Amino acid sequence: MTSTIKDVAAHAGFSIATVSRAINAPHTVNPVTLAKVREAIQALKFHPSPLGRQLRGERTRLIGIVLPTLANPVFAECLQGIDELAAEQGFRLMLMTTQYDEQRERHAIETLRAQRVEGLILTVADADTHPLLDELDADGPLYVLMHNDTKRRPSVSVDNHRAASDGVRMLIAHGHRRILMLAGTLAASDRARQRHAGYTHAMQQAGLTPAPALEIDFNADELAPEVLAHLTDVQQSPTALFCSNDLLAMVVMRGLRGARMRVPQDVSILGFDGLSMGELLAPALASIGTPNREIGRAAWQKLMARIVGEYADAPLALTLPHTLREGGTIAAIANTPLARAGQAPHASRESDGALLP
Amino acid sequence: MTSTIKDVAAHAGFSIATVSRAINAPHTVNPVTLAKVREAIQALKFHPSPLGRQLRGERTRLIGIVLPTLANPVFAECLQGIDELAAEQGFRLMLMTTQYDEQRERHAIETLRAQRVEGLILTVADADTHPLLDELDADGPLYVLMHNDTKRRPSVSVDNHRAASDGVRMLIAHGHRRILMLAGTLAASDRARQRHAGYTHAMQQAGLTPAPALEIDFNADELAPEVLAHLTDVQQSPTALFCSNDLLAMVVMRGLRGARMRVPQDVSILGFDGLSMGELLAPALASIGTPNREIGRAAWQKLMARIVGEYADAPLALTLPHTLREGGTIAAIANTPLARAGQAPHASRESDGALLP
DNA sequence: ATGAAAGCGCTAACAC
DNA sequence: GTGTTAGCGCTTTCAT
Questions:
Q1: What CDD domains does the record tag this protein with (chains A, B) (predicted)?
Q2: pLDDT digits (tens, 9 = 90+) for A269-308
Q3: Cα separation of B190 and A175, whole Å?
Q4: Is A57 within 7 A of strand D by CB distance?
Q5: Rounded average pLDDT over B132-160
Q6: Contacts of A285 in chain B (CB under 8 A)
Q7: DSSP H or E stretch at residue B93
Q8: CATH architecture of the domain covering A5-56
Q9: What would the pLDDT profile of A246-256 be if each residue is shown by its tens digit?
Q10: Which of the listed CATH numbers 3.20.20.70, 3.20.20.80, 3.10.450.50, 3.40.50.2300 matches domain B62-157+293-319?
């Protein structure tokens, strides 16, 4: 292992150039020579150092991965998909996480670029307004965005707008009128915006009044009192909550349970991500699913195509289909006891669904 | 960015050697010169190429990570912990996953070694009988194992034996006698063995008869019929299931639900891993918790200490404390209806707890 | 305090 | 078909 191409050359009795050729272009070298070189390689357990190759300006076979976090299975699954193909094709992955921090995004990209990665697969907070990506377009390595929902850049994602409105329409079809959207505090992302836009769209289309997303602190053990108050408000309480991601939905479910609210009898819940563990909850979490492993694989393939220079005319943004998982957390409003403790049944649910200022 | 140390030297009017010193040993260079060089660096947006440094035989500031999978949050969390410290300390991470396959473990280690990583953090299937690790001990890069429960090698883990027996004792304290351990089919790992040994120990200590672990196919959508038959067998059915990991526990819970078995009324469940999402299940999953983020961080620190050469006398294996989460999936046997459908109450539960051949 | 030069492991002209 | 040589970007003696 510590042996170099020089050692092999000496051992085989040829020059290092011949050894190099024997490795990289076997057909250009005399079969007899080839055999001897190969024997020497065997004997010395020689493996070409990627470092030498990389420095020489060759292909580094290195791909940089930039993700917000691995704590969210969405990204871990994407990475899994990427890794499958990378391993298959002999590429190495350099991983950096950003915690949704733009500073760290910049740092990661610079580090990776300095490392001469051949390409970058990344998920950034906001793809549209990101100066870094313009820089990459200009002279950085090739990249593909993952889960960033933008038409302007090379990306693989679901149609968040459409997915969200599909989900909300489904809630409406189940008789819900007062539907509130919940989002994480860090949710200034393009996809969060798209999801809220989709929610808004579906609401308006049904003649209902959409509300701004209610922000939830992700890390808190319990729901903030004002949030809880809002959710349980006798007059205005929503009958369904659309959570901008599944982790958030789970946190909210726990919070509600702590507040003695029953899901779905008192309130229905729809998540977003389709995390498989959501199905194991009781009741199973209804959710809009994204094919994360596939998104990772597609991002890889798109990146490779760009590197090879194929499909230069392929559409920038690839949209993969989302799915709708109708789990047990959604109750038809007809089946829902309209009255909660101390609250009389009222027809106003059917009125306009206005939620809050 | 595409500028090299040469460009900087030219721009500043000094030799590349001086620029190099200005970067790596600022105190050895004239303050005025230093200022000029720094200005040039700014102007050209120069970042030293890691590649050049690495090739020169210097520190690569590269650490290899080898994990079975990222689909299991246990490893994703460990990686998260590692990444935190790596980013802080300016190291880059090269990641490879193995899917518990020894071939791929070998390949990953060789790839990483060729890449001149300064160190390796890995989780292998079986640390004790692994020739690769002996090779690493001999001349590989320094490494630290994570979650591999062995005393013979540098590692960070919980005491799986003790953790398992703690858990099983807890079940026994709740009145359970027929306790069966379930393991994944891929579970020929050292930690799975330790967990089963811990189970066996606790059972015997209580005068009960332990059974071999029942293997469950992880990926199947439903529990295999023979497994289900075994779990529901009128005469011998266990009152509690100890699952060797949480993901498995969740799959089993779903399978049981499909078979109309109630948890914990009909059967109690204890998992292993302490996945935070387990708390969100209903009922919340009882589990033995491992501090994954901390394990990742500790592995990092141990590796760094080894690289620097400190603590050469530190104990090889670091054991972190596990926790016991007593969730809703465990019922005291006294409260359990002893009779299930078509089965009369019987005192034999109190007898010897024998489970199966 | 600074520069010249060697060399890390490899590939790619360019000779022969 | 094979060898010679230059150089990728950097650090590090060894001189000056």
A1: HTH_LacI
A2: 999 999 988 887 878 899 999 999 999 999 999 999 998 8
A3: 53
A4: yes
A5: 92
A6: none
A7: strand B92-97
A8: Orthogonal Bundle (1.10)
A9: 999 988 988 88
A10: 3.40.50.2300
